[in-house]
Structure formats: structure tokens, C-alpha cells
Amino acid sequence: MKGKRSKQYRKLMQQYGLSYGFRVPYQVLLDAEMIRDADRFKMDLVGGLERTLHGEVKPMITQCSMRHLYAAASVPGVSYLIDKAKTYERRRCGHRPEDYPEPLSTQECLASVVDPKGSKTNKNRYVVASQELEVRKHMRGILGVPLVYINRSVMIMEPMAEASTDNREKEERVKFRAGLKRGSGSLKRKREDEEEAEEKHDGAGEADISKKKKKVKGPKGPNPLAVKKAKKPTEEGLKSSVKKEGKESATGESNPEKSDGPEQGAKRKRKRKPKSGVEDGGVSLKPEVADGDDD
Asked: What pLDDT was estimated at residue 295?
């Protein structure tokens, strides 16, 4: 598969997923002709579907398509295809052999499975892989049905049908308008809230201005960055000062005389004893000897 076509298919499946809820594993309804053509072109049917749809697939086949294969059992190689188709999941269409001796056409059978109520919607999100033009034409009228077929050993996925594209664009417009309505309401609320906040702010500003006093012009103070900051007393400094005060108080109590010394010295007067001798003319007279010494 070429890169450009692969990107287109990936984008297309993303659109189906966003608009119609498709998700892996994709449920792929196969008809008998699709199985036979894949074998004729020597193609890996399941691998080709996974590469085309860009995801895991779950191949399914209806009871009527199995009966078509049984009817062609005499053709060489069809018995092998029957055994291979038995490995796919059987999607019961409700067309039992007792009620319908001949199997219904592929168009009628697949239409009853994809859109059983005729509401033109793909409720179960089936991918239809069919080689019949009438089947694909009918499925284009049902909303959200990816269509796959084989053309010269190349598996191709059709672009989204016109009905599906119109419905997708319509839903997108509705979502866009709903988003605008929600957005306009929220913008209105935001504007109202902003206006209320501005009014409150203006009222508070006027009150603050009235409270503030007029600044008195005068000499400016020193630059606070140039002024030396006062040192805060640390814990160690406080402890040392407390210790010093304690020591001083202790020494004062232990030596009361020293503390009272200057005051007592100022009050007391020293008494001197008179000299025993008399100075006369610069000559000192010896004191008289006691009577006891002469003897």
C-alpha cells in the first residue's frame, strides 16, 4: 500500500471514530465473493483488512454467506474456503434454512444485519467488505458504514459517503454553536465579575486616600542602607553580662569593709601621741630617767 493512500485511510478511520464511535477491534462483515476473490488473488484477507483499516479487525460472516459457499462447494478450492470461513465469527442473520429454503441475496442479508430496523443508522458499527456493487450502493445510504472491496489484488476503502459526510458536518455545526453559547454565557459572567471587582476596588481606594494624611515636606533622613545597624544582644552576651553582675554582687557581700572603706576613712581621724621630748634651740633633750633606773 502506498504511503499517501495509507494516510488517507488512517484519517478516514479517525473521522469514523470521532463522528460515529468506531473503535478497535473493527467488526468486518464479509460476503462469499470477498472471500473467493481474496483467495484468487493470493491475498491475506485478515492482514489486508488490518493494514487498510489501521487497526485490529474481527472478521464476521453471516449464515446466508456461508450457504452461498456451500452452494459452490463443487468448484475446486471452495471446500478450503469453507473451512477457512468457519474460523470467522458467525453473525446470525435470522434467515434459517427452515424458513428460507434458498439463501437471501447478499444485499438483503447484510442490510438486515447492519440496519435491522431500517433507521438508516449503523448502530453496531460494522465495516462492510463486499465485492458486489449493489451492496455497496445500498450501504452508502446508511450513515457511518465504511466500505472495503478488492480491485485487481489491491484492497481499497471507499471515501465517506455523502449522506455520512453531511450528517457529520451537521453534528459539528451543532456542537460548535452549543460551544459558542456556553462560551458567551461564561464571558458575560466573567465581565460582570470583573466590573464588580473594579467597583469594589475603586471604593476601597477612595476610602484609603481620605484616611491618608498629607506628607509634610522637610529634610530627608539618612539613607537606611548606609546607616550602621545596631547589634542585637546575643544569648552569649546576655549570659556573660549576667555572670559579671553576679560576681560583682558576690564580692560586695564578702568584703563589706572594702566597700565602706572610703566613707569610714573620711569620717575617722588618726590620733597621734605627743612626743615625750622638748625641742629647744634645735637640741633635743632626753627624757628623764625613771627613779627605778638610778638605783
From this structure: 42
